[in-house]
Amino acid sequence: MKYLCNPININYRYQFNADPRKHGLLQICRESADPSMICFRGRYYIFASMTLGVWVSDDLVNWENHRLPEDLPLYDYAPDVRVIGDWVWFCASSRDRNCDRWRTKDILNGPYEKVEGNFPFWDPNLFADDDGRIYFYWGCSNMTPIYGTELDPETMLPIGETKALIDGNPWSNGYERVGENNTELPASDEEVEMKFQGFLKAQGMPAAALTPELQTLIKGMFTRRPYIEGAWMDKHCGKYYLQYAAPGAQYNVYCDGVYVSDSPLGPFELAENNPYSYKPGGFLPGAGHGSTMQDEQGNRWHVSTMRISMNHDFERRVGLWPAGFDKDGELFCNQRYGDWPMKVTGFRQDPWDDPEWMLLSAGKKAEASSCTEGHEPAKAAEENVQTWWQAETNSREEWLQIDLGDVFDVHAVQVNFADDVISIPCPGEIRPGSQARYIEERNLKTQWKLEGSADGKEWFVIADKSSAETDLSHDLVVCEEGMQLRYVRLSDMCVPYEQKPCISGLRVFGKGHGEKPAVPVFTAVRPNDLDLIADIKEQPDTVGYNILFGSAPDKLYHSMMTFHAGENRIGALVKGRKYYVRVDAFNETGITEGTCVPLEEKA
Question: Is the dihedral of CA 495, 496, 502, 507 positive or negative?
């Protein structure tokens, strides 16, 4: 058996971003996002923004990064990749120039043949229908919709009219509202116009000096409307599923919604199950702007963007989850325990399988050789990717230790390195563009040693990567047969750019030996059209809860993990839709399902 644990375990490259909004100050972070995943000739490939390459796998678990040719637009966002016949087609985003396409029959070795384009676009997606006709979708804005058109299969140039297909509607689709946990509604047209005029006055320019496109772009800064972006089209049983991302990559609620039509160019209607990819809680949240594909065994998977957004809004990672279509044709994605280890069997598997191993390290006692102010050892066990332990020095003598509180049967440890503020010169030339930046070309190294003990006296090595040649900042160590231990210690660390090591999560998974939690007691009310409040009664011997909701008791496709009892708000409802809610409880031993109830309107 093989296991993956999100984010995908790959070398995420550093970028040096000279953001003009920060007066050219370099913001340094790892980034990878907007993934397109395909299966081509029995192998899996993920093309993601700002990676300089393609990730390749034979099993969806073990991935390698291969550099792509320099003449491809590797510094452009949202690479789109599709298989059409014997060819793999590639393109990426630009608002400033006509976007070309490339095609190849050999992804790793090339050659790549250039096919010239004749218009600019952002967040592209190519789709080949069963009848051989080709369609194209694009759009990334909080002011304009996602567009679609038909392309000539020979030239890949538009041959039909451009149609507006999907626009944002945060007044009815709660999951499209911006802010953490979907907290904000857009500004009114009057408010936007007032702020726009104030901007013009401050800049000392008349509106006539700006093109209509630039006026729209500037007004978008003041709307608080969601970005509607990241189109991806799939066809299933004669229906067309146009997927899109909202409300913004920097929020924990970045998600993928879906519209359905009988035609590739619409009209489209909002699907019953929305958002279908949604992960607002847990260690690493976010599940937006991605792609959906079928593996060699017929299993469907959804891959999309996860959020850190501490050193830069676009500090992001990539996650992979089981997906599928139910008997009624609803597209779904299972993210209930979406950043815990999950098995990948290599044959047909149930996308709703519960995890085999439970989280053992959440909230457990942690200690370290040293720490900096605000980055205490406990931060490494908070289940929050935005907080971390940081050592006082970059010496290899520094260490971090988790005490699980008892001896457990441990099966996996995920070692998550974080980046504190990095202040070093850029190692290469900043490239101009929509966001001027340099992506680190060198293959860096992340090294460490992991040890375990049952009593804190006798230690054994779980994994020794103190001489590793790889740079895996979210590495997963699996021991299927299990290890009896209470303590886990990370030491002998060396990270890129001679940083002080930072750990956002030393996460331990396995099996407990006590009782599962009691059946959770909760109430669920709907205070308005778009929000759900689940009030969970605190109970002993519980680590956390999963709040599940959906259109029917057997369609609880949405979930939010929380480690807090009491009131928990979810802002992702669709106006006018009926919902059912269930709260499950989990601890180190297992999961206890709650009772499913209809969501009640607040009197």
Answer: negative
Domain positions in the chain are 31-178+224-344, 189-222, 358-511, 522-601
- Integer Cα distance of 247 and 177 in angstroms: 6
Residue 342 has what pLDDT? 97
**Number of residues that make up the chain:** 603
CB 404 within 8 A of CB 454: no
Pick the CATH number of 358-511 from 1.10.10.350, 2.40.10.10, 2.60.120.260, 3.40.50.300: 2.60.120.260
- What distance, in Å, lies between the first and last C-alpha atoms of the chain? 51
pLDDT digits (tens, 9 = 90+) for 24-83: 578 999 999 999 999 999 999 999 999 999 999 999 999 999 999 999 999 999 999 999
Q: Rounded distance, CA 364 to CA 488, Å? A: 11
Q: Which residues pair with 294 in a beta bridge?
A: 300
Written in H, E and C, the secondary structure of 252-303 is: CCCEEEEEEECCCCCCCEECCCCCCECCCCCCCCCCEEEEEEECCCCCEEEE
Which residue positions in the chain have pLDDT lower than 50? none
Q: Do 540 and 390 meet the contact criterion of CB atoms below 8 Å apart? A: no
CB count within 10 Å of CB 549 equals 23
CA-wise closest residue to 500 among 416, 400, 398, 402:
398
Q: How far is CA 598 from CA 47, 418, 527, 582, in A?
A: 41, 41, 14, 9
Residue 72: the pLDDT is: 96
Pairing relation of β-strands 269-270 and 80-84?
Answer: unpaired
Q: How far is CA 152 from CA 102, 156, 179, in A?
A: 15, 5, 40
543 with 362: CB under 8 angstroms? yes
The DSSP 8-state label assigned to residue 362 in this structure reads T
pLDDT score recorded for residue 529: 96
Does CATH place domain 522-601 in 3.90.1150.10?
A: no
pLDDT number for residue 24:
58
Dihedral angle, C-alpha 292, 293, 295, 297, nearest 10 °: 90
Tokens 């395909």 correspond to 38
Burial readout 225-248 (b: 16 or more C-beta within 10 A, e: otherwise): bbbbbbbbbbeeeeebbbbbbbbb
**H helices present in 425-527, as ranges:** none
What Rg value do the Cα atoms of the chain yield, rounded? Answer: 24
Tokens of 512: 């407990």
Tokens 């946990």 correspond to what residue? Answer: 181
Give the SS3 label for residue 411: strand
CA distance 366 to 380: 8
Helix (H, G, I), strand (E, B) or coil at 7: coil
- CA dist 358 and 462 (Å) reads 19
* Domain at 31-178+224-344, CATH homologous superfamily: Glycosyl hydrolase domain; family 43 (2.115.10.20)
pTM: 0.95
